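tokens incoming
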């Protein structure tokens, strides 16, 4: 695909993968719709991409807000028409034992990670299909950001796992559904492993009071922070890989293909009706550390 002059829409564009995707898109001459809930991060991303020569339409909103997403989609349709590249990327991380996850945390994490993607898909896919019907040469691609936690279920991060499994399911279904009606729109699901971004400080954008974290939530936050900080693959590399995967129409995009062993094990557990294996088995003594910390040993 020739990107110059086409439109890329990126949610969570103020930091991490979203910011790196915006940098590449600006470099490719795409016009950018940049969305983020954090206004200072969004402002600085917008200023940077404009300085790089990109035309930018910014929207400071929460992807979980259906009405705000709908108003934004109507503005985009009026001003620039359907996006050619749609990155439903905004997401937040939260941990803790699954029964300790509060109702507010379920609503926050599912609201951003799952409903944010739902809104992107339900608002923009019909617009993209209409553009494709009008012009047989029109091409589009949707990338939803899930996680390796959408393919395996590490302990002490249940709300995040559930949200990301739902994104994988939604995106596989989107692929099948689109295949029924068009060959002009591709779909991918990005499944990163731990990468140093702002994800371990997601609480910065949590709406409402967060309440006092439980021991398991503190341990989860600490482990997530250490794991992402130790990540050897950069967010910029993942964004480059994502653009390459779009160009070659790959469905599953992995930041760390070597970490797929635990996915393989999980699939065998499912097929052979075994007890779920430890998803941390390939990560030294992480499970033992987690057990000891939770038991106060
Ligand atoms: N970094 C990792 O290790 C990792 C691993 C797997 C998956 N992911 C996923 O990658 C995606 C991007 O996260 P990241 O790692 O770049 O983290 P990040 O915190 O650096 O970036 C996320 C961006 O989303 C924005 N955001 C948060 N809530 C929002 C909301 N309600 N509406 C709009 N924007 C909102 C934040 O302000 C931030 O700019 C997320 O979906 C995350 O779950 C990250």
């Amino acid at each position: 695909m020739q990107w110059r002059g086409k439109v890329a829409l990126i949610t969570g564009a103020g930091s991490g993968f979203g910011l790196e995707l915006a940098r590449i898109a600006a470099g490719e001459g795409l016009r950018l719709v940049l969305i983020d809930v954090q206004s200072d991060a969004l402002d600085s991303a917008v200023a940077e991409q404009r300085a790089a020569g990109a035309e930018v339409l910014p929207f400071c909103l929460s992807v979980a807000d259906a009405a705000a997403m709908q108003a934004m989609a109507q503005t985009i349709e009026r001003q620039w028409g359907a996006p050619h590249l749609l990155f439903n990327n905004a997401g937040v991380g939260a941990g803790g034992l699954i029964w300790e996850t509060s109702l507010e945390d379920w609503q926050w994490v599912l609201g951003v990670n799952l409903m944010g993607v739902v809104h992107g898909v339900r608002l923009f896919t019909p617009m993209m299909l209409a553009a494709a019907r009008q012009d047989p040469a029109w091409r589009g691609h949707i990338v939803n950001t899930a996680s390796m936690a959408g393919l395996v279920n590490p302990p002490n991060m249940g709300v995040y796992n559930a949200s990301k499994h739902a994104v994988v399911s939604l995106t596989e279904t989107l692929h099948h559904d689109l295949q029924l009606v068009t060959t002009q729109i591709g779909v991918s699901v990005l499944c990163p492993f731990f990468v140093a971004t702002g994800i371990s400080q997601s609480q910065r954008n949590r709406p409402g009071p967060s309440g006092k974290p439980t021991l398991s939530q503190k341990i989860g936050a600490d482990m997530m922070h250490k794991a992402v900080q130790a990540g050897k693959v950069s967010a910029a590399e993942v964004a480059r890989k994502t653009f390459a995967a779009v160009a070659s129409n790959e469905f599953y995009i992995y930041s760390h293909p070597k970490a797929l062993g635990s996915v393989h094990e999980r699939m065998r557990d499912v097929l052979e009706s075994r007890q779920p294996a430890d998803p941390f088995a390939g990560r030294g003594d992480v499970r033992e550390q987690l057990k000891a910390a939770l038991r106060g040993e």
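note: The chain has one domain: 7-259.
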